[in-house]
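pasting for the record
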Amino acid sequence: MTHLTRLLLVAAFAFAQPAVAFERAYWAWQRNEPPNARDLAALARQGVRTLYWQLGTLRNKGDSWQWAARFQLPVVPDFEVVPVVRLESHAREPFSEKSTQALLQSLAFVQKRERLQIDYDCPDRLLSDYAATLRRIRALVPRLTITALPGWIGKKAMTEIAKNVDEVLPMFYDYAADPIVPGAAPEPLIVPEKGKSWLAAWNNYPSPWRAGVPNFARLTVYDPDGTSRGNIREWDWDSVTFNNSLMFVRQTDFGVSIFLAGANTRVGNTPLRKGQLLAARWAERDALRQLIAQAENSSARGIVIFRLPDTTAASGWSLSQLSDLSAQPHLTLKAKTDSSGQLELMNDGSGDLPPVLPGGYLLQLETEKPIFREVDEGDFAHVRGEAGAEGRASRVMFPLATRLTFSFSSLRAGERLETGLIQLAPEADYAQTRYRIVHSSQSQWQPFGK
């Protein structure tokens, strides 16, 4: 860490609100790269001191536990980084004596650490066995915390679990499995009323706990009868927004959009068959704001947000947006100073420009006379040339165009998109143009450079 970075962090901590009664932390999931200087400063401004970092996944098979994934645990000065181990098992009895011995052996490395967190979606019928296993894991490490499903509250085994861990982190999202109904009926990630109800139940939990809240986006594939075929792991918003084979079906409450595959296609790294459905879900901003406010009024010590944002679409809102969920985006268009003619669209606001489905956003650049010779889309999904009055415009070759339309799906705070090479006619410049961003709050025409 450079001297300048350390000074920025110190300054950010100095101006951050002191976390006296309510703290904020993040889960970092499936990543090796540490937060960069900008992210660290944003975390410090939020008063964050703790990062729960996924070290890996232990998968149960028979009486053994094997690492299915491992990630690098970073050293982050001025932050406590807590290793998290996820457990996965489909066995009926994953905590037999032989299996538990194998698990303890796999976790022996934690004897060199101060803290450990276990993430396991334990079925209710196994909670007593899980409690006994946690007692043995607790002997390996000074401080042990666990994640929890909200429905565990009130279960008899929770009394034993409370004795064996220092803190419990129930996750207030994914409240229930999606019902299997024709046409699919995916559950939103957050339903404020359900969150409020579960938080009220956890208010009676006698031991320390923190509320897990979601910050991620998810794509799920369904058969026509509503049977889930799982989530897509690698994807971006462009692959949904501008996929001509996906037909928009409907949008429901709290950040859920449903599409129908009109032909065989791919989204990210996953094929979809004609007739299958795709649900796009994310933590809708107002719903997330409500859930956090409800948690602040509960007996929780704080919140832990899943997950720490990275560069992927699946990681949800940016740290800047999470610092202030009411912050709004502001987009600025300018020309690069070199001779490439490239344009740069920058979100210099504190809020994100979220995906708008279907259709995305349109950056339109217009002039009275054709001045464009060559145009490349660059970072944008598409670009097309148009001519004619608005509402009756037709697509034309770039040298005949009086309007360029660049398509893009979203733009987080601090991010930018660059066009490729744009060649203008001799003596022409961008001062002759005006622009707007359709489907955003900046949809009115404005002179270039303003």
